[in-house]
Amino acid sequence: xxxxxxxxxxxxxxxxxxxxxxxxxxxxxxxxxxxxxxxxxxxxxxxxxxxxxxxxxxxxxxxxxxxxxxxxxxxxxxxxxxxxxxxxxxxxxxxxxxxxxxxxxxxxxxxxxxxxxxxxxxxxxxxxxxxxxxxxxxxxxxxxxxxxxxxxxxxxxxxxxxxxxxxxxxxxxxxxxxxxxxxxxxxxxxx
Length: 191
Hints:
CATH architecture: Up-down Bundle
Largest sheet: 2 strands, antiparallel
CATH topology: Four Helix Bundle (Hemerythrin (Met), subunit A)
Helix content: 55-70%
Strand content: 5-15%
CATH class: Mainly Alpha
Number of helices: 6
Number of strands: 4
Radius of gyration: 17 Å
Strand order of the largest sheet: 1-2
Structural class: mainly alpha
Order of helices and strands: EHHHEHHEEH
Number of domains: 1
């Protein structure tokens, strides 16, 4: 038997974690120089800005779907929703474990990565901050939408759709995964 998730708890958890990411971006990353933000801790790793640009690329896809459902999605039907098996698996696979370890490493597809290695600090940080603020605003509207009865296209295309609640959890769990990477990278390039 699959578990049900309480919609209000999902929305509240996403809001809290998205706000924490926005706070980290504004209070920690924005203070760093452009050179530090573009510095790679080693040749095979992403810089802080490359990591954020990856999030920006994927954020554009998911936020478009969230906006559409916030504006015209099926209204909320109840207090809970049943996650889909694939969407729930994908969302949970993105989430770092409690000890900070990642369940497994993933290789980003080429279209999901920064197109150049030196990026503009203001442009990348403003885009990420704007996306997080938009997500927080959209969450207020999505609280009134059925998280199980609406589907959103994934970053792999419209052929693969997750239930809205699963897509929202996947999006933010993916963000959290990379914000952990950002913290580790920041420690390495500022040491």
